[in-house]
Amino acid sequence: MSTGLRIVVVYPDLLGTYGDGGNGLVLARRAEWRGIKASLHQALSADPVPMGDLYCLGGGEDGPQVRAAAALRQDGTLVGAVERGAAVLAVCAGFQIVGTTFPDANGSGRAGLGLLDVSTVKGTGPRAVGEVVADITAAGAGPLPTLSGFENHAGVTRVGPGAEPLATVRRGIGNGGGDASEGAVAGKVLGTYLHGPVLARNPALADLLLGWATGGQLVPLDDHEEAALRQERLAVGRRSPSGMARTRRRISRALRR
After folding, report:
1. Could you tell me the CA-to-CA distances from 50 to 74, 80, 95 in Å, in that order?
2. Cα four-point dihedral sign 202, 207, 208, 213
3. Deepest of 71, 141, 174, 255, by most Cβ within 10 A of its Cβ?
4. Domain coordinates of the chain in residue numbers?
5. Helix or strand or coil: residue 241?
6. Residue 195 a catalytic site member
7. Crossing angle of helices 22-32/203-214, nearest 10°?
8. Segment 213-255, tens digit of pLDDT
9. Of 218, 126, 226, 140, which Cα lies nearest the Cα of 183?
């Protein structure tokens, strides 16, 4: 790869509510630590999306999410890049955008990019908020350690036959469809509801994406500091009540005041 690995954070001005842009930095650093030349590009919504090898989409609010989806459909670069073999990490609102449909603030369906066979509707219960612990189940994601993350969403996402759930939730809500699934993956497109940023908490997931983007085996890194962070967050997640249970208790307390 003569020009090096091009990592693109898509529309951080619209999809940057939860700090998910940090995923791009994690990818760039883990590439550089291995001697892989990497460049990190912040693609603002006012500009054309640049060509890249690995794209990151993050979380955002309803209005910016709708604008981001419309701009990406009009731009066309991301869809074309995936067709040419680029990898994608899509988080929360980004996960919904790369699917087939997602809800706007009024609950009306909006067209996604169709890069993942998932559809999202607005949930009727409390928001899914809190720590998540989930076991990777997707064959397309390979054997990876248990996932750790933080969810904050009101969507219910169902995975169609053209994709497979990324993981099964042990603690938390995940996709919210009642099947304990979390995220989805198809080809080199991976979606998840996990913030954190998710790649800072789960370096093996970052390396999976880097492997997809570079097409080669990666040299192992000394991840003892990352492992300590993972164990601390996993411990919190395992002893914390589920996000939905916590939300219900907060609502109950508020109503008693």
Report:
1. 14, 11, 20
2. positive
3. 174
4. 5-256
5. coil
6. yes
7. 70
8. 999 889 999 999 888 888 888 888 887 665 445 544 543 444 3
9. 140
By the 8 A CB rule, do 167 and 205 touch?
no
Convert the pLDDT of each residue in 63-101 to its tens digit.
999 999 999 999 999 999 999 999 999 999 999 999 999
Q: Which of 41, 92, 153, 224 is catalytic?
A: 92
Q: Which of 219, 242, 164 is nearest to 31 (CA)?
A: 219
Q: CA 208, CA 56: separation in Å to the nearest integer?
A: 14
Distance, in Å, from the CA atom of 6 to the CA atom of 170, rounded to the nearest integer, reads: 35
Burial grade of 103 (CB within 10 A; 0-12, 13-18, 19 or more): buried
Residue tagged 């998540």 (tokens) = 132
Cα separation, 1 vs 188, in Å, equals: 18
> Catalytic one among 56, 153, 195, 224?
195
The three-point CA angle 157-53-167 to 5° equals 30
CATH superfamily of the 5-256 domain: Class I glutamine amidotransferase (GATase) domain (3.40.50.880)
- CA–CA separation, 171 vs 44, rounded Å? 35
